[in-house]
Design brief:
The chain is of the alpha+beta class and 289 residues long. Helix content is 56%, strand content 21%. The protein folds into four domains: 60 residues, no CATH class; 106 residues, Band 7 domain (Tetrahydropterin Synthase, Chain A); 45 residues; 43 residues, no CATH class.
Length: 289
């Protein structure tokens, strides 16, 4: 009987200790409730004691968590619809406020955060054009939205938003074709402007090339005529100098060249007066006076 009582007492002590002691890990945040009322809003990591069946401990993951929002439709500054799919990284910073706001339900916290993200995206995208949202100011948009969310999420929900990112931006099916058609029209207009500008430049280049060609040809003809004139003048000077040295010999050689060219063809007929000066060097070798 004594052994039974001893075993029962030991079991009771162990049961009491198991319900009195609890451990909070480094990766956890915890709150203590007393009959459902919050009495300790932030329990530090380590070993702690509670009153069995009076106090209740709720533990929550303190690591960074991800909230993947559903795709939503937003309008840009020029009233163009976009399908935006986003996600957020967040963690608990005020475990007491987190429990009060969500009753410790992580899904509730995610839903509240997703709603605020969509509201923030609606405001941020509505203040920007399509190009700015897609590429130009996408990073600035995310930073501004993260800062805006952190102004209220810590005090209202007890969480800190680490980052908000857009996974995908699509055009809705009902406006995609019209947007693509406008994009094609715009690109065709830009291409036509580039072609027209290129043709204008080509015409100017060809006109300048033609003008330069005319100038070069005129300058070349001028230089050729000048060189030819200088050559003729020099040749005339040489002829005059040679003639002045021996006029009879110069006349004789020129007559011989004329005979050679005249009688080179057997088919030609030449009618001349035998007493003509043309034949003076063929008459007994005595020049006609």
């Amino acid at each position: 009987m004594k052994n039974f009582f001893l075993v029962g007492s030991l079991f009771l002590v162990l049961l009491l200790l198991s319900n009195s002691l609890f451990v909070v890990k480094e990766t956890e945040r915890a709150v203590m409730l007393q009959f459902g009322e919050l009495v300790n809003a932030d329990i530090e990591p380590g070993l702690h004691v509670k009153i069995p069946w009076v106090n209740t401990v709720r533990k929550f993951d303190a690591r960074i968590q991800t909230e993947d929002s559903t795709s939503e439709r937003f309008l840009t500054l020029e009233q163009k619809a976009l399908e935006v799919d986003s996600y957020a990284k967040w963690r608990i910073v005020d475990v007491g406020q987190f429990y009060v706001s969500t009753r410790g339900n992580v899904a509730t916290a995610g839903a509240l955060l997703a709603e605020r993200i969509n509201d923030g995206l609606r405001d941020q995208i509505g203040a920007r054009t399509l190009i700015e949202v897609v590429s130009g100011e996408r990073d600035q948009l995310m930073i501004a939205l993260t800062n805006e969310l952190n102004e209220t999420t810590a005090s209202d929900i007890g969480i800190e938003v680490i980052d908000v990112r857009v996974k995908r931006i699509d055009l809705p099916d009902d406006v995609r074709s019209s947007v693509y058609e406008r994009m094609i029209t715009e690109r065709n207009r830009e291409a036509q402007e580039l072609r027209s500008r290129g043709e204008e430049l080509a015409i100017g280049i060809r006109a300048d090339a033609d003008r330069q060609a005319v100038i070069f040809e005129a300058e070349a003809y001028r230089d050729a005529e000048r060189i030819r004139g200088e050559g003729d003048a020099e040749a005339t000077g040489i002829y005059a100098s040679a003639f002045s040295r021996d006029a009879e010999f110069f006349t004789f050689t020129r007559s011989l060249n004329a005979y050679r060219e005249t009688f080179s063809s057997k088919n030609d007929v030449l009618l001349l007066d035998p007493d003509s000066d043309y034949f003076k060097y063929l008459k007994d070798g005595v020049p006609v006076q």
